[in-house]
């Protein structure tokens, strides 16, 4: 099995949901290289024991750091449990991050249902699947 680099991000009201989801899929997440925005990553490390490369918090540039990983071809997918009912001051960063996922053909899950479908797909962690990316 290949190892994917997966980003984990959650807005404040969605952090408990993402943590519960990671715990549900702990055996799968153990097979991935994990990066996360600061607060989310620290919480996941503390509550699960997983190793997470913690970037800056989202409002302080963490979303943009994840965007840079996408543009550099260093990120395979994004699990971003965002809160569409609570505006955040860094909403333009969130929109830019989601736009980069579309441009670079990065699978992105914005809720539990989509995240569940991605990690239970036979293509997840499969050496048989290679997503098409724009030329670097």
TrEMBL record:
Sorted UniProt keywords: Lyase
GO molecular function ontology, one term from the record: methylglyoxal synthase activity
Catalytic center residues: 63
SUPFAM superfamilies: Methylglyoxal synthase-like
GO terms of biological process kind: methylglyoxal biosynthetic process
Domain MGS-like: 1-136
Pfam families, sorted: MGS (PF02142)
Reaction catalyzed: dihydroxyacetone phosphate = methylglyoxal + phosphate
Stored PROSITE patterns: METHYLGLYOXAL_SYNTH (PS01335), MGS (PS51855)
Alphabetized InterPro entries for the sequence: Methylgl_synth (IPR004363), Methylglyoxal_synth_AS (IPR018148), MGS-like_dom (IPR011607), MGS-like_dom_sf (IPR036914)
GO cellular component: cytosol
Binding site for substrate: 11, 15, 37-40, 57-58, 90
EC number(s) given by UniProt: 4.2.3.3
Function: Catalyzes the formation of methylglyoxal from dihydroxyacetone phosphate.
Family: Belongs to the methylglyoxal synthase family.
UniProt protein name: Methylglyoxal synthase
Annotated organism of origin: Alteromonas halophila
